[in-house]
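We treat protein structure as text, and this decision shapes the records that our systems exchange. The tokens are whole numbers drawn from a learned vocabulary of local backbone shapes. One such record is reproduced below, unchanged from the form in which we store it:
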Amino acid sequence: MTDGRNFLLTLEDRETREAVYSELMGHVEEEERSQVSAGKFRSPTGMTERWQAGLISNFEYLMHLNTLAGRSYNDLTQYPVFPWVLADYHSDTLDLNNPDSYRDLSKPMGALDPAREESFRERYASMIGGPDDPHATPPFHYGTHYSSAAIVLHYLIRLQPFSGHSVQMQGGQFDHANRLFNSLQQAWLASSGLSARVEHQTTQDIKELIPEFFYLPAFLENRNRYDLGRLADTDIPVDNVVLPPWARGSAREFVRLHRRALESDHVSANLHRWIDLIFGASQRGRAAEAACNVFFYLTYEGAVDLEAIENAAQRTALVQQIHEFGQTPAQLFTLPHPPRLVLPSQLERDQSSSSSSGGSGGAAVGDLWCPPGVAASRDRDGGGPFAAVNAGCVLIPPHCREFLAFGFVDCSLRVCGVGAAEGSGGASDGRVLQTLDLPAGAIGVAAVSSDGRAVLTASASTPLLDASGGSSTALVHVSSLSTRWHVGPVQAIAVSHAFSLAVTVCSTSRWAVLWDLARGKFSRTLLAAPLPGSGPTPLAVDDVTGALVVCAGRTISYLDVNGELLSVACAAAAITAVCVSPSPEWTDGNVVVTGHADGSIHMWAAEAAPEGEAGGRRLQHRGALNLEHHCAVAALHVSADLKRLLSGDVKGSVISYMPPPVGGVPA
């Protein structure tokens, strides 16, 4: 769907499937239809080349392969599969530069322990029948699977709706406490077979992971306070998942470091070997036999033609058996997968070198060199074009060749061109490209998502909001929004198309509101906003992590995508503008930038909080800039490469700042 949602349709037979497919294709644009017909959406080639060049992350590439192989969040029996990447769940500090910290990605889970691998190979050899036995079951190493509905529910048992599915699968109650997902170290030892000390370990446990291990801390916490029973040997209740010592008791810190491990040089250099096992050349045939990677035959795509089975009971039994065993992804590659050519560390060095040779310095915005009381240097050469607009206007990202204008007598929302930029249709400054009449009437405030595909506007006199979407020159009204938590005009808006959410603050209410744009509905209230009349309430949404930033007076509140408060910090002066650097949460360069009424600009880093501190994150003041703004800062923007900070003040002055190289001196 254009709003990011997707649906899984399960049909009875091929004939019905083809009829539905044909009907749906009739509603697809001609260009996209030709791409689908040519198989471009099913071919991994283009994305593989992008991954090799370091243009997409390991996580993004694995999700792409899972999608092409028929895996979906909408199907528990074919859920996306991800690898165990670490082998160290016991150290106090995780050393990502030590190869011993990582799992061997060239082997399946069942072959990581030599003794267990030998037992699986012996089973396979014992099942090889003679050529005269056509009814013999094809030999296999594993009678279970690394991915199944039961495994997904095992990991996600603390989250709804998976909790309910788990109870249903167990006949109305949770499974025995000793069999639940309770400890990451024990789960690793059991799945890898590397320790016989794990209670209830069997040679059949070969689980891989699911994507949530790399982005969703909530599934590791028992926030719903379910009674999951007590461990038989210690009588300790099963509650939150027991984390490795290096996570410092924080599920967020575990996920951050775990994702960092996935994107590390070591995993990047070896991930193609795991892809061979799951999606590629070592999935089937002699290569799979040599790699100790053969599963029960019904787990493979095309192993049996269900439509050819006329007996309904037999067909139902086979389907149930397939669901029980798990399903191997569709094979995407028949030749060994190529390795990644550009590792993350090489990419960082190349970007730094490129920036330095261009005279812009090698430091990121978050790596400040600015002694107290010293004015930071401005970017004298400009470093490329940028656009700025007046109050009552909002630039439309990502190219900023158009802007929204509002506050007109006819209450319209207008899309205007910024100069005769390429792709703007040759529009001169301020030329109106589109006019949109919205139900809420005269517009008082507007916001645009970072990709330019979602627009949220608010009435200047009522608490009504209007959501619009589309391209920059073809916006259409989508829905009108209202809530009892807003009783006066909306004062500030931040919107994210990537997460289909928005945050708004009302001028006469003390509550910030989180909206679900995909469904056009109120989601929840957030923390208390400032009292009416206490000044601006800057808002920001991080499109990478979904983190929310709500500022009130001198207070900065940092929340997760679900509105849970992670950290609160207090600045020295009233906050008048805020933005978030577009860097991934697992890196060290992620910062919140605040502009203040006294013209100063401050940097705040979202860092791991000490063990036991609520939220698991803490906003630490990293530094301040004096860019010679002599009045309140009105707008801030950090460039996508993190090398440039743009700041504008209420008098119309715009300053472009580029940090000097680390250890250098401002020019």
